[in-house]
User: What shape does this take?
Amino acid sequence: MNSIKPKKIISVGDVVSRSMLERKLPLNVFIIDNKSMRKNIEPLPFKADKTLKLVNPAGTIMKEAWQIIDEAINSEGLVKVMVDGEEDLLTIVAVLLAPENSIVVYGQPDKGVVVINVTKEIKRKMYKIVSRMRYKSED
Assistant: This one.
């Protein structure tokens, strides 16, 4: 069996991030909001090499999210992105910004964990989703 070495491993969500960190699974970036299913939970006790903060209200992808997640992905060490708001839709941003052959992991409530192998085709699908979203000016 061939071993796969992803370029980056990114988790989105508190529960999946906690699970990966507790199991000492390799991780480059974890994106959290200290919530699970929109209810406050105990903050993750894990230290990151770098912490970035981001405001991203529920049901949105703020312009700043693209810059912060890009910085996180292109940083060395373990990077935490702490979201004030909601991180759910940021999975799309992570997939679009991650290098090909990376992995993005997120939790699907009451189902389990979803693992996305980042390929050109997956990026195309995510871009289609973003292109159908409504743009709202931030002024």
Remarks:
- Helices lie at 14-22, 63-73, 90-97, 120-131.
- The radius of gyration is 14 Å.
